[in-house]
Protein 1
Amino acid sequence: MIGNQKQRLLHRPSAKGWWRMVEGKAVALLLSKQGIAHQKHRYQTLRDRGSHVPSDEQMFETYEASHLLAFIIDSHAENPLFQAPVTKPKHILDIGTGKGSWAVDVADLFPEVTVRGVDLFPPPVNWIPPNCILEVDDILQPWTWRDPFDLVHLRLLDAAFTLEETDQLYQQCYSHLQPGGWIEQLEMSSFIECDDGSAPEDSILFDWGTRLTKAADKENRPLGIMRTFGESIEKAGFVDTKTKDYKWPIGPWPKDKTLKEAGAVNYQHWLIGMEGYSMWLLTKYGDPVPWTKEEVQVYVAQMRKELSNPRIHVYHRARRIWARKPTDDEWVKVESIP
């Protein structure tokens, strides 16, 4: 099953296709025309501000690469798509679904489950399983889904929210989960690291994380939630927190076969995605003053050149956390303690 799933991920069509409407509402057509045009990229918005990454074909390819990367890294697990021990789920929610890849794969793997993927923009999909629903919505607004979820999945939402909005989001997740339901989130660091000295200390690669973090702080949507989202999840009331830390290689330099394959995919993830990840932040909030589009493009070109050096062995960290909403019986026991 895992091998077939990987092959399907590698060969999934990327052409734009039809969009499944939500309860007969033609919201996708309307929202696909909204957004903020900035430096020849379109950034989706539903409120007074937009996403800091564009909703264009290049970023959708980046999302697909990150999905395949995470799948390969955990391909030896019984279930590479999520680690939470969810039993007999009926309803699963994917927040920040991007291209919808994770939601589609979970729906394909569990045909008896209704899987909803939600994001600010309609993804370019040409097929989804009948038990998968992709929706355009603002998850910071009150949720209107009637059925409680058995699993809420989140991934790569760094710099998407303010700290207050992050707490609000986890409270929404908690409120709309079944008692005993699970939350799971996967985040990656923007800081590139090297353990063996193969990259010089003055490499521009080590500048990336610091520079983008400063810009995101100015926007009040901080990067670096990988270090804090576990604490935020527990603050919302979740228990039985489990953590899995990773070192994701950039490039096919590891000797381990799985990591080599993952590194090759991650290399493409970075090459394709760097301009999209940085253009908004650096042209709006660059240090010491906002950059021009051309300055960002030169910076990204320098990053790509150094990443393309086969002699350097660099990586970035990632962290997966899953936690459980207490059951009603557990709450009764807590309340009965004198």
Protein 2
Amino acid sequence: MVALSALTALPLAAGTVWLCLRSRLAARVVAAPRRDRWHERETPTIGGIGILAGLLGGVGAALATGALEPSSELFGILGGCALLFAVGLVDDLRSLGPLPKLAAQVGAAALALTSGLSVEIVGNDMLALGIAVVWLVGMTNAFNLLDNMDGLAATLAAIAFAYFAVDAATVHPNGLVLAVSLAACFACAGFLPFNLRPTRPAAIFMGDSGSQVLGFVLGALSLEASCKLAGTTEATLILPLLILAVPIVDTGLVIAVRLLEGRPIYQGGRDHSSHRLVYSGLSERRAVVFLALIS
């Protein structure tokens, strides 16, 4: 029942993206080609609308059918998603800069953490809260940075959500993690045909409104799945690190390189793992597939 309810996310995301491409926003909210960006033509950046619509639709269907029980943690996560989506959409339209985005990310983390999510790897409550905020903000930014090549962020996010869904259905039963993971995974699947096309560039990007939401949800689910259920330091650390290894490593390497070169870490660039794979001789599609296989 949970899977069938969450499956609503796929056609809802795909249909919303299709409508977005035919709206006036598609011509207004675009990413123009730049030297520090990978794409070579103006592309709408409103795909996050479809991703959020699919996520909310899948979760809503699970709630409506009784496959998912309402909880403070669920509404805290969804509230954080709504905040990041709104700020991300404005940023895609007007370029807010790093500080307003960081403030929104901390605010979203606060919404999730005050709802009941927690970190249990340390005994000090304030230190645990600080670690949780850094983790959520870090994962939000990791997927924002990872959205640097057609299909990459959505593909890796879908794989990570699938892992969390399998874990929630088998090893650590958790209705919230299962329903949200499946809904998010299907939302990514509905978005991907427009973002990863076999012979043509992406028709649409997810933008900050999509990448921040995906990263935040993955960070929040990792806390819910590992910290609250496993109850051990080892599982708390290993599960999210393994599932999210590619975005974590990519973000760490990019930050290190930019700091060494004296460049702002929030500035775009062609220095991600995906770009290095293309420089080494792989096509863009094969680079995405390679990173997906690693995930």
Protein 3
Amino acid sequence: MVQRQEGEVDEKTWVYDSSVDHKGRLPLRASTGVWKASLFIIAIEFSERLSYFGIATSLILYLSKVMHEDLKSAAKSVNYWSGVTTTMPLLGGFLADAYWGRFSTVLISSIVYLLGLILLTMSRVVPSLRPCGAGTCLEPRKVHEVVFFLAIYLISIGTGGHKPALESFGADQFDDDYSEERKKKMSYFNWWNFGLCSGLLIGVTVIVYVQDHVSWGVADIILSVVMAVTIVIFCVGRPFYRYRKPMGSPLTPLLQVLVAAIAKRKLPYPPNPSQLYEVPTAKKTQERFLCHTEKLKFLDKAAILEDNGDSAEKQQSSWRLATVTNVEEMKLILNMIPIWLSCLPFGICVAQASTFFIKQGATMNRKIDNDFLIPAASIYSLAAIGMIASVTIYEKILVPVLRQATGTERGIGDGFSLVGLQEYFYDQVPDSMRSLGIAFYLSVIGAANFLSSLLITIVDHVTEKHGKSWFGVDLNTSRLDKFYWLLAIMNMLNLWVYVIVARRYSYKNVQRRAAVAVADCYNGDGVGSMA
């Protein structure tokens, strides 16, 4: 009894979740992590989203007004840039988890992001780099095109490391094995989105207003200064952060499971899952175990102990014998693929917000009292205001009620698309792939942007072949209403597919009882739906 009380006191004092403080020591719970660290992280996310949406929402207007691209070409250019920007996190997340660590990845990518903003500012302010020497021109200078596109793709590279590493670094400040902090982490994702949407809201109101009524260059200077200041703020919070050391390539253990399962494909399954191989009970500072599941049973062969006289060294080779936890991690990734694919049609709809929606806004009567003209890109603010309001209602009213009604700490968070996708991909990946988990979420939007460009090309070709293209030179010669009906039908059909896939999905289960060598999810040894 005395030992148990000492253990509880020790756990309240120190953090045992594989993290360290800024000096590489065991973190002190009272002075590190949780909200005292997350606020610094949310601040730099605010700055990044301010810059991103200040640029992204007005990009199609800049391409059509200044670069003189037609509607179809401008929409494709935006989709390509958005696609690169939201798929680059796959590389950034991999580097963060495997080699650089999340703090270093965020810092390096933020500096690259800042360099992109400075270069973008120069392309609009420095006389020799501006689109025209004076006044307006039918075609911008080639040097402006080169510098402009180099700048925005530098921002894409910066986002690639910034976005997955920062969000998962923020979530790392909460200990999943400590109930008080685990509940706070559920709130973290909601307030993360609150900060995100606050940056979005100011970006699509204040920044685009400056772009429309002052100059593009002044808006870029504001974004560069804000980013520089928040990088300093992020570094000031360094003593309060909890850090996780990079663990090498997270893909290697998955490949080892596949190789071991193929090598032992002819072996019979053991009569009891407890006979599968698992490492001895983990110490507090080691990674958590996952409990055994029955799905994708072929992969279980990677954890079968061979009785063929091989030496212990050969049997212990990671390419010949995998732990149950590694096998279950491979199952998690394979189970996520159908969910990822079924989210793509939703992502295609999201892609329209930064292209056709903005162009439609530009054709509306946006005057208030004949004196104030609302910028076209500010149409994006409606979504931001809605999410800011809903996050507060969701966090303070819905979650407590639904948590009690459903019996889960998550309430019904997975029923809300973007926040739900963030939580889902972060929670359901293996512990060693948390940054990649955020990248998987972003890659849905990234892949959907490329698919949106492909869909525009196909629809344009087919409709032009059968009369008149749905995409003309401008909105007045286009039939976007028919294109939107096509998207609605696609998503209606996809909804049925998603429901079927979701009903068959098995959540990640973390072992609850450390004394069990191989935890069996069906005997209550695991905590379902939890990270």
